[in-house]
Each structure stands twice: as C-alpha cells, then as structure tokens.
Design a protein that fits this description.
Elements (H helix, E strand, L loop, with lengths): L1 H11 L9 E6 L6 H11 L5 E3 L13 H13 L4 E3 L2 E2 L4 E2 L3 E3 L4 E5 L12 E7 L3 H12 L4 H17 L8 E5 L4 E5 L22
Parallel strand pairs: 1-7, 1-8, 2-7, 8-9
Antiparallel strand pairs: 3-6, 4-5, 9-10
Helix pairs in contact: 1-2
Length: 209
C-alpha cells in the first residue's frame, strides 16, 4: 500500500481531465484483478469514488454503454456536478434507482473497456491490468463457478471483438501487474503509450487472486 500511496500522490497532482475531475481508468481483461486493484488504489487516494462499468453495461449491451457514460457520468462531472447513474442489476436484469457519483478531485473508472477510444479524451490517466486474456478469463471462470459458464462463453467472444476493434493496452500510461505482495507499476513513455505498440514484457508471477 505504501507503493500505491506514492502513485496516488502523483495521480492527485495531475491536471484535471473532465471539468474539475481527474478521471483515472483501470482497464484490462475480465478476471485480471481490476476491481481489487481499483479498491486498493481508491483507499490510497483517501477513499476516492469508484465507478464500476459493470453498473453501466447490461446483458443486452455488454459494451454499448458509451452513451450512458457520457450522459449520466461525464456530462455532470465535466460541469463539476454530482453524477447520477442508474446501475444495472445483473440478477433482476433491470436498471435500478439512481446512484450518486460526486465530482471528487479524482474519480476511478474500472472495467473492461474503461480505456476505450471514446473515453480517452476525458482521462487523466489510463492504467492497464497486465494479465493475458486466457489467464484472466480462467481466473474469472473459477471465481464465478459453473453456473456462469454460458455467460462467460458469450462474454469472452464479445470482449475479444471489442479489443480487436478498440484496444486499450497500446494507449495505457502504465501497466499494472499483481505480485505476491502488492503490485508492479510499469510507467510507459509517450512513444510506448500510443505510438509504439510493442512493449517488452516481463514474466508475471502474481497469485491467481
């Protein structure tokens, strides 16, 4: 956590990117550890708000949530107003009552596609959980169990199509790799994060969860 505190201080020092807000995206494959990392980073940031993109997606629109993001989240935040979005209930298959998201100095947005092309102009920083798709999906399947087997089959196909058309990793400002204790935070140069899409990998030796 001490290491995350150092990076959190750097994030707080960034220029605002969406009105008065510094939007920080945490993207990566499903099962790569985005939610856990975002929670720990939010704690290091003093309890900053976290928007989970699972709340904007739905069974019918796994990735077609950009309009809802702009209307319910980015629009109000850009005006310095509290955003109110309607989170999706994956069990009831319906959108619930509005939930508040304050225009805090730093707001984290975590989920598959958080670094998509349509959102990048609003981001102060794009972080990528650097775990290969196959390993991440296997973790996710183990976590959710056999009952979600059919859903995962559809999800992995949709995720593959999404990243083929709109990859986030080449534009990431930093690659985040889970370690047995803590995280490895690999900063990228301007050339690596957007121009040169080939980045040298180091072996990932983190735990499965």
């Amino acid at each position: 956590m001490n290491d995350l505190a150092r990076h959190a201080a750097r994030l707080r020092a960034l220029p605002p990117s969406c009105g008065p807000v510094r939007l920080i995206a945490v993207d990566g494959h499903a099962g790569s550890g985005k939610t856990t990392f975002a929670a720990r980073l939010a704690a290091a940031l003093g309890g900053t708000p976290v928007l989970h993109l699972d709340d904007l997606a739905s069974h019918e629109h796994l990735f077609d949530w950009t309009g809802r993001f702009h209307d319910q989240v980015a629009g109000p935040l850009s005006r310095g107003e509290t955003a109110r979005y309607t989170p999706y209930d994956w069990t009831a298959r319906a959108f619930g009552p509005p939930r508040a998201l304050p225009a805090a100095p730093v707001v984290l947005v975590e989920g598959v596609g958080a670094g998509r092309r349509a959102l990048r102009p609003l981001l102060a920083r794009l972080l990528w959980m650097d775990l290969p798709a196959a390993a991440a999906w296997e973790r996710g399947r183990r976590r959710d169990g056999p009952a979600q087997h059919t859903f995962w089959n559809g999800w992995t196909a949709a995720e593959t199509d999404h990243f083929a058309a709109d990859p986030s990793r080449p534009s990431a400002d930093a690659l985040i790799r889970q370690l047995p204790v803590g995280y490895e935070w690999l900063e990228r140069t301007g050339t690596e994060a957007g121009i040169n899409h080939s980045v040298t990998h180091r072996d990932h030796h983190g735990p499965t969860y």
